[in-house]
Amino acid sequence: MLHHVKGKIVGVDEGLLVIDIPFIGFEINVPSRYFKTLKIGDEVFLYLYLHLSENKMELYGFLTKKEKEIFHRLLKIPKLGPKLALAILSTYTPEEIIEIIEHAQIEKLVKVPGIGRKTAERIIFELKNGLLQENPLIKEVKRRLILLGYPEELIEKIIPILRQKLSLETTVEEALREAIMLIVNYGDGI
Fold it and tell me: What is this structure's pTM?
């Protein structure tokens, strides 16, 4: 299974980055908003998703694990393919997508090319249970921070930032360490 790729960008072509690693180049579909910051010659690390269909294999790449996770969850929605999932991630950041889902902002989702009102409603319905359910990891980190004496108000302020940094592989200890670093670094400035 492919997990990630690290290499130099040697080409850019309509939603694709061409990444060169020794002796091989990969064409990787990425969110179009990446093209604002990435350019030929840049070194890049992308988390990969391999999509197999009857007649082709396509690689999709993401700068963060959160983006890859959202992409994967979008693909689980019936009749939503990788091109539409990528269009959503091209239009909005993971944080914006979570906010759209939290507040059921259908009008924002229909701005994505290829998404109508019914599809937007289905996406919000499907993701509301998956993305926004209280993550057991977050729940445990909150519990431990309270036991350590941190005020709940401060904990609630760092949780959105912490969510962005977590992945499916993050342990409770890693998440707790990250949360404490956020509190120490930002304190009341969040």
Answer: 0.69
Q: What is the pLDDT along the chain (190 residues), one digit of tens a residue?
A: 788 999 999 998 878 999 998 888 899 999 999 998 999 999 999 999 999 888 889 999 999 998 998 999 899 887 899 999 999 999 999 989 988 988 889 999 999 999 999 899 889 877 876 665 566 788 899 999 999 999 988 888 888 788 767 665 778 999 999 999 998 887 655 5
CB 19 within 8 A of CB 46: yes
Q: Which domain, by its residues, includes 155?
A: 136-189
* CATH number, residue 81: 1.10.150.20
Cα–Cα distance list, 53 to 45, 143, 185 (Å): 25, 43, 46
Number of domains in the chain: 3
Residues 55 and 105 in one domain: no
